[in-house]
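Reopening this one. Same input as before:
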Amino acid sequence: MLSDQTPLPRQVRVVGKLDMVRHRTRSFGLILDGGEEVRGVLVDGTPELLQGYFGKDITVLGKAIYPSGTLLRIDALEYRP
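Same output, byte for byte:
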């Protein structure tokens, strides 16, 4: 059964280079050291707060969401330089 294989959301800490911020959807993209892109959504705050971090490494703390067994996004609760 698919629901048996789908991981539950869990708290994560991810470090990556801020590559993209989208104002309309409050989303952002991080590039990890291995070149993989991870998408995230800001739970609180506005995307403008991330602008100063473009191209820089940041740490995102939040909840990883896995709707089909693979990471869809991180619901970001906090970020740090």
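So the earlier flakiness isn't reproducible anymore. For the record, Residues 2-5 form the longest helix (4 residues).
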